[in-house]
Amino acid sequence: MQRIYMDNAATSFPKPPAVLEAMTRYATQLGASPGRGAYAEARESGRLMNQCRDRLCRLFNGEKPEHVVFTLNTTDALNLAIRGLLDPHQPKPFGRRPHVITTWLDHNSILRPFNALAQREDVDQTQIPCDPRTGLVDPDDVRKAIRPNTVLIACLHGSNVTGTLHPIRQIGRIAHEHEVIFLVDAAQSLGHVPIDVQADGIDLLAFPGHKGLLGPLGTGGLYIRPGIEKRLITIREGGTGSQSERQMQPDFMPDRFEAGSHNAIGIIGLSEGVQWLLDQTVDKIWKHEQDLVRTMIGELDQLESDGLTYFGPHGVKHRCGVFSVRIDQPEFAHPQALSDRLERDYGILTRSGIHCAPLAHQTIGTQELMGTTRFSFGPFLTVQDVRYACDALGQICHAASRVAT
User: Fold this and answer.
1) How confident is the model at residue 222 (pLDDT cuts 50, 70, 90)?
2) pTM of this prediction?
3) 143 and 172 Cβ atoms separated by less than 8 Å
4) How far is CA 377 from CA 45, 67, 111, 288, 293, in A?
5) How open is the CA angle 264-265-267, to the nearest 5 degrees?
6) Maximum C-alpha span of the chain
7) CA distance linking residue 217 with residue 45, whole number of Å
8) Assigned fold of 17-280
9) What CATH architecture is 281-404?
């Protein structure tokens, strides 16, 4: 039986061959730690790592490559942005606790750091509700939530539950009108959807290396708009290979925020994933994903009368290639049952559950139902793969209906 991977929202698979080739070349020919030696192999490792920064800046129109800080993953990047900006020892705006704005569609990687800070009374937080049908946040609601002491607006770009794409350019414009820092979680969008940090008004862009950028697990980054680094404190200090004689962390980018040895093998692999995207162009990849989305919507619309529900926008606009579904039959009360059936009978690999986004599931009414079964697309899936998955869902729905009657 064929195996069709539809869990790209968790991590992308397969990777471009050049990713593995670059990692193998590093492991067998270089092996040196970047910035930790003056010999040729160490210099070459450093060059390759900086090449990755250059490529990333080209991908999302960053201003300075040295403002790409490598992290373990998106969660690590978000913690650096959030805790670095909202440290309780930072000056308090207007003498009050800083105020932050998030949305109900956000992932736990945004929600939990803020919730921890709010529990300790280090911040005040406003969570903007989203439309239960589309998952969209209204930019005017964001505008209305801004207070004199608001220092940060944080939101995801693409939902890992509903596939909703928030209007980040509008939100970024509102943030800048009010001189509020704008943090975007691009875990489900970078590499899938065109992003321009300058045009979109993004001050801090957190992203994974292993999802849309097609690199290995254990890679990610935070892009910090020039000037914003002065507002962030370090949340981790240690060796950098630079200014080792100093007692304190270097104050220049990116060393200020990159303590310890790098995941060089992962970053060098990531660099080739980014180059693959640059060669293909994100515009072309985005058009392909929209074709997959359009096909999925057309097929799923026909199954709604058979007891299948899918969540998020029912059109290509404001949507990326992430679909959550439920089948209204007792045997599929737990979404894992549908994932199991799809794998066992059709070789389709999906993800079921709450997807680390409880407020998103509360928004669409599936939190008490233990979540949904999620399909998520990558650039190597085809329209035929999507049709096959929808045919499988149709067969499952029809069989469940016969059993129920």
Assistant:
1) very high
2) 0.96
3) no
4) 32, 30, 25, 10, 9
5) 60
6) 77
7) 19
8) Aspartate Aminotransferase; domain 2 (3.40.640)
9) Alpha-Beta Complex (3.90)
